[in-house]
Amino acid sequence: MAKVRVFSLAKELGLKSSALIKALAHMGVPNLTPASAIDEDTATTVRELLAEQLTKVRERTKEAEDAARQEAQAAQKAGVDAVRAAADAEADATVEEEIKQREEELALLEREMAGHGFGPSHPGAYTSIEEIERRMAEVEASAEPKQQPDAVTPLPELAKRLTGTRPDSAVEVPPVITVLGHVDHGKTTLLDALRSTDVVTGESGGITQHIGASELEVGDKRVVFIDTPGHEAFTAIRARGAQVNDIAVLIVAADDGIMPQTVEAIGHAKAADVPIIVAVNKCDLPAADPERVKQQLLEHELVPEEWGGDTIVVEISAITKQGLDELVDMLLLVAEVQELWADPEADFVGVVIEAGIATSEGSVATVLIRNGTLHVGDSIVAGSNHGRVRRLRDWRGNSAKEMGPGRPVEIVGLSGTPDAGEIATLTDSPRAAREAATAHEERAWQRDIETSHAAVLRELFAGMISGEVEQLNVIVKADVYGSAQALEAKLLELDDQIEEVDIEVIHAGVGPVNESDVMLARASEAIIISFHVQAPQSVRQTAEAAGIEIRVYDVIYEIIDDIIAAASGLLKPVIEQRAIGKAEVLQTFRSSRAGVVAGCRVTEGSLQPGAKMTVIRDGEVIYDGILDSLRHFDQDVSQIEAPGECGVACAGFRQWQIGDIIEASVEVEVERRLSITSDDARPHEQG
Ligand code: GDP
Ligand code: MG
After folding, report:
1. Which residue's alpha carbon is nearest to atom 19 within ligand 1?
2. What atom of ligand 1 comes closest to residue 281's alpha carbon?
3. Are residues 200 and 317 in the same domain?
4. Is residue 322 in contact with ligand 1, taking CB distance under 6 Å?
5. Residue 339: in which H helix or E strand, if any?
């Protein structure tokens, strides 16, 4: 099989060899050097992943570029018109030429507009990638069945809270709340207690209906609780891209204090970036020590308000119902600040909270309506499930004809049971719903095949290409609390020392890596570092299927070395402009081939065709562009050194005058090195 050298593939892709080596190591091809040869299959996989990544980046930049080009086009048009007007007055040959030239430029711009490719703002470096990308796009276009319009806006975007200008039809919607905490600290009891305090309906206790979410009415306000407590469910939903929670209630038993799952829950809530309200539960017990809980919270950067921080802490008892009113008040208060709204007149979008099979009715799904209104008879699709809404029920089991945004609703009529976190949307007809579901299934299948090493790699590439602030998310698991803390501290210190990459420890905990860590890693695109603890086989399998890396270490400094290496891999090279030479224009003449040619003497360094060229007249820059052609007598040459003479031509600039100065420069790629700002860092790891 044909082989490709790592450095030449890197060059082709516009990457540093070291970055590519790191990416390949993630793909399971370790121990490469720039001179190593890899097989063509692997190279193709890398090209494909990169092309895919580029397509995404391009989509993001396309809009901005289109706008810029439209502006340039308008300006160019104005220029053509102005010159044309001048030509009418003077009918001068050079003006004619200029018109032609400008019209050519305009035509070029228009062609670019039509092509949507990387425009002149991205010269050179990406040419070969663009080609790969185009080929990929062609292949995809011919292979893909007709796309559903859902490809336009990614579903998770649709399911997000609306921000920005409210339409007139907008309504306030309740916050969605999840209760997180250690086992037996009272999650279920709290939810039951809250439900039974629902004063509006006068109902007390004995709620029979459990649909996965419930509503609490307080005066004219409402709060929605996700009934599946615990951070696994919380993060499972988030892992699918749908963030439904607005507030997390962290429950901590006052007699027990912060326990391992409490720490996990804090990590999950922080990663989801939702406000945390702490409910210190079981305050009715004699052994209750709320002050100790508050002390412990400090260790997790949750500083109670009464101590000058911004964490709301409420002392409650789910049994005696002490403090529940205050807790609800706090929830409403935090929600009020969030100003949550939705538009009942928009297209329906919902997020699946849970689903199951009821013997009499077939599949039943609980969906939280994010936007729009859902009616009986509507056709919907949720992941690879679809159907017509046969029945709608509120969380108490009361039938409804329609339900508006912010409401949890039970839907009967779907073809199967979608997973929690799946996003439901409206379609024109049951047939369209079925087609969308099939397309989704195909995409999911496709993704499954690609997932394993691809995710890590894709992230690496994404950081490198898009130039966004690179962030390395890390989850730390260790054998004992002390090591977890030490490791976290070490990583934070490293983060301080490295400017170019943000290292974020999104969770540090004790014990073997578990499913919940993997889910968190998936939702937060993190790597998992496990210190002195092995992950169970089943967890490793889940991680592998999800493309999540679990790295196991026994020595802290090895972790640090690896993190530096991973962070370095996130850096993309910087392009620097380097001056190469200067020349002075001694005469100008016309050439049938090149238009107007400037006869020059090189006064410093050298000139090269393809170099960036700045023309200076009387100390002012009058043109910036590319030196298109460089000739010595009648020969094209690749370089002229001082004090040689040469002819310079440029398609974009013909108004040469004797005495103009040309300054030439080229772009050079400079590898970025991690700058470790402290002396105790390990110097041999830099770069
Ligand atoms: P979960 O595992 O977090 O859902 O915890 P549960 O709600 O199942 O509660 C675990 C145990 O703690 C149960 O026996 C509850 O009755 C008890 N419990 C919950 N809240 C309180 C409380 O405020 N005070 C007392 N004394 N016991 C409580
Ligand atoms: Mg429970």
Report:
1. 186
2. 23
3. yes
4. no
5. none
